[in-house]
């Protein structure tokens, strides 16, 4: 690809995005060097990665897990094991690293994402919650430090690919107005319950919610896809990343998950990005940008695609989408609270203490009780996120599973 080796840190290396990233970089041994990997508690997953890829550093956010990893790697030379959230953030800012893949799930990824942006890294952003909680701050920091953030979320990566690329522009693309763009459209598969009778939503089990029809992903994002909160978070992510308003970002249901995004221009043109539903494509795009890399994903055979459907989302079936748009209108503290309440509700659903059909109600209740303000410092946003988690946890305790 080029003659300089990119030294990579993968934050959240044991997860679904982390695994896909490892797959892509091992296809290009001359272009990338894996310097750092981080994870939360998955000691076995981290041991496998260290033995297969020999990174210089492995960080476990959970200290007990770091101790366990160090014991298991006693016979392996050259891998430094570190522990704790602060080490994860420090690893993201380390001068020995050029490119940081921000693939931790949830607001837990915000501090390390910001550390990478503050240090002016090339940041491959999968962790959409970082932009939902503090997107304006993250983007403003990138403009100040010259960090280049490239979107890995497939829809945002698709939009990015349909925009005129500008290696000299702060965020890698021409501004929307400057480029003549009128509207961005994100596609959504509709998840596993697109056609299920809503009267049965109370009985939905965790394994059913995590069985996504077209993508293989971590559990949190799978549940978000089933409620369609994922698309709500992505509308917020798009507004923050591409610096536009909610009414410029449309959502369409596209069950085949082959068209990931469309961009409409002033002159009546609509550009679309297509590809198999495999995250190695957007990851390879972002790793190689402004060049292109082999990702291991086969081309679509367009003569065999069959029918492609595009339908409007059903707001009654999926109320989370509207909750996210309302929070976006209300401002930065509301989106931080939306994220906190959603993470608490999804954790409770996965843990068996909240019904699927009550996830949106917990979030709605929390947003109704918050003190909404527009601008906010990082501390305010983090406080707001925490307040929302606590409030949501109170709701969940009151409502129980019955
Ligand atoms: P995952 O659950 O498979 O992996 C999450 C990773 O984060 C793991 O390595 C885990 O150890 C680490 N982690 C979890 N909690 C942590 C904590 N408190 N501190 C430090 N590390 C922690 O998740 P995923 O599906 O790979 O998703 C990662 C991010 O990418 C999410 O924000 C998700 O929305 C986004 N994303 C994922 C996909 C996908 O296809 N999986 C697509 C688009 C965007
Ligand atoms: Mg997505």
UniProtKB/TrEMBL annotation:
InterPro entries: DXP_reductoisomerase, DXP_reductoisomerase_C, DXP_reductoisomerase_N, DXPR_C, DXPR_C_sf, NAD(P)-bd_dom_sf. Residues 274-390 form the DXP reductoisomerase C-terminal domain. Residues 149-242 form the 1-deoxy-D-xylulose 5-phosphate reductoisomerase C-terminal domain. The keyword Oxidoreductase applies. One of its GO terms (molecular function) is 1-deoxy-D-xylulose-5-phosphate reductoisomerase activity. Mn(2+) binds at residues 153, 155, 234. Catalyzes the NADPH-dependent rearrangement and reduction of 1-deoxy-D-xylulose-5-phosphate (DXP) to 2-C-methyl-D-erythritol 4-phosphate (MEP). This is 1-deoxy-D-xylulose 5-phosphate reductoisomerase.
């Amino acid at each position: 690809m080029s003659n300089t080796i990119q030294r990579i840190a993968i934050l959240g290396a044991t997860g679904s995005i982390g695994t896909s990233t490892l797959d892509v970089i091992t296809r290009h041994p001359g272009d990338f060097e894996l310097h750092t990997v981080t994870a939360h508690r998955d000691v076995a997953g981290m041991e496998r990665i260290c033995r297969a890829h020999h990174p210089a550093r492995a960080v476990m956010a959970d200290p007990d897990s770091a101790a366990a990893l160090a014991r298991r790697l006693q016979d392996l030379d050259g891998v430094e094991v570190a522990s704790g959230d602060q080490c994860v953030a420090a690893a993201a800012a380390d001068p020995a690293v050029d490119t940081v893949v921000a693939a931790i799930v949830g607001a837990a990824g915000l501090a390390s994402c910001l550390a990478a942006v503050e240090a002016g890294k090339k940041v491959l952003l999968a962790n959409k919650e970082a932009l939902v909680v503090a997107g304006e701050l993250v983007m403003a920091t990138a403009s100040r430090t010259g960090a280049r953030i490239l979107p890995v979320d497939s829809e945002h990566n698709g939009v990015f690919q349909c925009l005129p690329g500008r290696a000299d522009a702060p965020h890698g693309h021409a501004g929307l107005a400057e480029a003549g763009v009128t509207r961005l459209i994100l596609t959504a598969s509709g998840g596993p319950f697109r056609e299920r009778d809503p009267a049965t939503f109370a009985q939905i089990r965790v394994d059913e919610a995590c069985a996504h029809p077209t993508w293989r992903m971590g559990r949190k994002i799978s549940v978000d896809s089933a409620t369609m909160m994922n698309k709500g978070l992505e509308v917020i992510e798009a507004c923050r990343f591409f610096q536009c308003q909610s009414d410029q970002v449309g959502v369409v249901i596209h069950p085949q998950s082959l068209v990931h995004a469309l961009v409409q221009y002033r002159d009546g043109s609509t550009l679309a990005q297509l590809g198999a539903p495999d995250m190695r494509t957007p990851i390879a795009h972002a790793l190689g940008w402004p060049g292109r890399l082999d990702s291991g994903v086969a081309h679509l055979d367009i003569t065999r695609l069959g029918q492609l459907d595009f339908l409007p989302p059903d707001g009654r079936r999926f109320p989370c989408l509207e909750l996210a748009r309302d929070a976006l209108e209300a401002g930065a503290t509301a989106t931080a609270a939306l994220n906190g309440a959603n993470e608490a509700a999804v954790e409770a659903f996965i843990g068996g203490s909240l019904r699927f059909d009550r996830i949106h109600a917990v979030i709605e209740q929390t947003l109704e009780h918050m003190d909404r303000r527009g601008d906010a410092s990082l501390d305010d946003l983090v406080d707001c996120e925490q307040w929302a988690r606590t409030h949501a946890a109170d709701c969940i305790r009151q409502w129980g599973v019955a």
